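Record type: monomer structure entry
Structure origin: computed from sequence
Chain ID: A
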Amino acid sequence: MRIALCNEVIREMDFAAQCEFAAKLGYDGLEVAPFTLDENPHLLSASRRTEIRRAAEDAGIAITGLHWLLITPEGLSLNSPDDALRARTVDVMERLVGLCADLGGEVLVHGSPKQRSVPEGEDPAPWLARTFDTLRAAARAAESAGVTYCIEPLNSTETNFVTTIAEAVRVVDEIGSPALRTMIDNKAATPMEDLPVPDLIDKWLPTGKIGHIHLNDTNLRAPGQGEDRFRPIMAALKRCEYAGVVGIEPFIYEPDGPATAAFAIGYIRGAMED
């Protein structure tokens, strides 16, 4: 099990400094939000990709994968009836899969709720069919690149497509690609699921359908900065012999990003030792 910091937490630093800082704190890796690299991260040159990967290697830290995939470029959609827009979205997703592989990453986490929601009042069938076609293309790209593409269950206040692990697993099963999986995010799962997160881990991790874990408090702060308890979560991951990446993904940084990153790794390492 490796612990990664979602790099947007310290995005005010340049990327080399992010790597050095996270490594000194004791993180095993950085999970990169592509928008922190460039306005068009899917178009990064080969030399820039090499530079980014080398910065991590020089700091002794891994780039474990990508998340927040469709923040930039703006206006993308998995299910738009506009064929040209949907083709553009597929192109960006496929290129981000390539970016992940080029940086040495292993997993992409697809949240991006606005780009996958079905408009209220619409017949969902054609919208869902188009969504599945888009995800199939991403899964094929992931298979070719040797990485895993995870559809992330999110809160129903964010999207109406895939809000529970069971729904995500049905999507994974329908597409049937070994490169497409789902994941568990504490802040999303806690209000949406009928089991506590440790029990969700016990239930779903042995199925092989879980490809990633995100830890954050339901108050949107870092693990240990709210009411959620993470020692039982870490115990469940150990009990199930989870060998993947755990991404630390707070959304509120108090008092600031670097302090939040430092607190989170200390808390989670302590929970692992307990």
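Annotation 1: The chain has a mean pLDDT of 97.
Annotation 2: The chain has one domain: 2-273.
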